[in-house]
Structure formats: C-alpha cells, structure tokens
Amino acid sequence: MQKTSVGSIEITALVDLVQAYPATTVYPELGDAARFSGYLDAEGKVALGFASYLVRDGETLLLVDTGWGPEHDGKLLAELAEAGVKPAQVTHVLFTHLHGDHTGWNIDRQSGRPIFANARHLVPQADWDHYAKEAEEARKKATGGRPWLGSFERDVQPLEGFGLLDLISGERAITPGLTAIPTPGHTPGHTSVAVSSGGANGFVLGDVVITCVDAEEPELESMFDWDKKLAVRTRKATIERLIADRALVAASHLPAPGLGRFVRADGKQCWQGI
Predict the structure, then answer these.
(1) CATH of 2-273 given 3.40.640.10, 3.60.15.10, 3.30.420.40, 3.30.70.260
(2) Residue 37 confidence class, pLDDT cut points 50, 70, 90
(3) H helix or E strand, kind and range, residue 21
C-alpha cells in the first residue's frame, strides 16, 4: 500500500499480488530479450504487479479495478484495510476492462453478495457487450470459453441484478477532477482515468502498458491484447500524452506499486517509478 497525490486528489496503490511471466511469452516477437535484461529476472521472466488504485476526490472514493481475487490469494482487501478504508465507504468502482485480474473482488464468495455494496460500478459498454456475447456463445457450445469468461459471469454480470451497474462509453466525468477516457486495444472498451487538480495531471492507466518492456518499445505486440495494432496505436499516443503532461501515472502491471512517470532519457523513453 502506497499513497501519493495529484494536487488535492489522493491516489493509493493497492497491490493484490505479483507474478512473473516469460518475456518471450508476453511478447512473442520480442526476439533477443537480452537488450531488456534490466527488466528481467535470471530466468528471463518479467514481473507483473496486479494493482488497483483508490482515488479520493472530496467525498468521492473511487476504486479503479478490483484485482484477481481470492482464488489467487489476492491481498486487495487487506491492502484496503491497511489504507483505513472499509468496502462500504467506496462510492464508485471503475473497471478499466473486464479481464478477470481486474474484477476478482466484486462478489463475496461466501454470501454471493457485492463486496462494494454502496458503490456504483462503472463498466465500459464495449467490454460488456463483447464479453456478454462471448459468454453466451460459450454457453451454447458448452465449451466453457476462455478463462476470463468464468470471471465475467461470476464477478461482473451479477452486478446488474444487484442494481449496481452503470455502463459507460466515450468520455465520462466522474468528478470535476476525474474523467474516464477510452483507451481501446487491450480490450474493445478499455478505459483509463484522467486526473486533474491544482494544475497537476495524473492518469490511472489500466493495461495500456503491460511492462517496462513495452513502455520502452511501445510497438511491441503483447499476447494479452485483443486488437494488437489498435493497442500499439493507443499505447504510443498515450505515452506521448503522458510525457507531455508530466503526468503522475498509476499503472496496474508495472513494477509494484505501479506509481511513476513516463520520461525521455538518454535518447529513449522509459518508465520511471517513484
């Protein structure tokens, strides 16, 4: 758990877990991974944090993403408690997208009820439509579908029945200082959150950038991206914007807790943690 701020808006990083993947699996066309050795462990793996972000703007308490959940021994609720916040105090939950590692702590496994019971849950319309269609097709074929479809049906669809779901599209003001911004490519409706306060800028990124590798070389295509070409275009444009804005960035999978900035140094762009 780590806190920082953008003007008067407080951002708290809540790390659910950290897990390492082979760099050549994440980036199938990486080629010689040696040039990124500074980002890899001795086995050639790159560590991914799985972080959510609690954003406080006045009376609004926004949780961006809800981690991977209890099936992965996630620590989100413990991190939230360490920050001195109870789930009932959260006023809004926004999902950058609907992959299971971002929706895991929505529903209590024992009671079957929402964990953030007083919060409006903001879901990108394009992601809802996409995964609802895939889930329905998987049910018809009785194949079980892709791994995240189970989490969609278990952790996301029930929110509609509890009356907590708000589908969003385009730019959406949450508060005067917090705006949901479409950043598609990783998924059809991938959404980030722009933060603005007191002349300072911030950005809760989601999965626009996955690791320090594609922060440095945004043209690299990741196996995790739905539309790889669109994801590259979004990644390049977003990094350019964030460098120009000198924005503080909260990035789910960059080295935990995923707080820092994109900078240009020594003739290249890179991630610089704080």
Answers:
(1) 3.60.15.10
(2) confident
(3) strand 9-22
